[in-house]
Design a protein that fits this description.
Elements lengths: L2 E8 L3 H12 L2 E6 L17 E8 L2 E7 L15 E7 L2 H12 L3 E8 L4 E6 L5 E6 L9
Protein name: PhnB protein
InterPro entries: Glyas_Bleomycin-R_OHBP_Dase (IPR029068), PhnB-like (IPR028973)
Pfam family, one: 3-dmu-9_3-mt
Length: 144
């Protein structure tokens, strides 16, 4: 069964927001900037400090977030795309099946593709909701 987690988008203040959420909710916070990632050479130096991915975990709570917008490396932030639903899948078959089912009647934004941490893709479903799909093999050691 995949794990469903909210994924928040910020315009340059993700680290600040996630640190605040950690101070309120407790737990462990892991933050990776673009400059610290395998994508470092693909973003302008001025955007290197922006958060590629962060994750706050505390028991069953999993809250993820990243920076976008402001001419940054990953699209733009507009009302309506500030929260996504992220499915963390358990197998290649599961991510492929769920991706196809939820994309039906919607729009594929990022086709499923191999990334440095595993498989990733995103869609906007027929109701306008953004879904992110992740599969990280057990034998992979992602930074996050």
């Amino acid at each position: 069964m995949p794990q469903l987690s909210p994924y928040l988008s910020f315009e340059g203040n993700c680290r600040e927001a996630m640190t605040f959420y950690q101070s309120c909710l407790g737990g462990e916070l892991v933050v990776q900037s673009f400059a610290e990632s395998a994508l470092a050479d693909q973003v302008p130096a001025a955007d290197g400090h922006k958060v590629l991915h962060s994750m706050l975990t505390h028991g069953s709570l999993v809250l993820m977030a990243s920076d976008v917008g402001g001419g940054g490396p990953v699209g733009s932030l507009t009302e309506g795309n500030t929260v996504s639903l992220c499915l963390n899948c358990d197998s290649p078959e599961e991510i492929t099946t769920l991706f196809a089912k939820l994309a039906a009647g919607g729009t594929v934004v990022d086709p499923l593709a191999e990334m440095f941490w595993g498989t990733f893709g995103s869609i906007t479903d027929r109701y306008g909701k953004t879904w992110l799909f992740n599969y990280t093999p057990a034998d992979t050691s992602p930074n996050l």
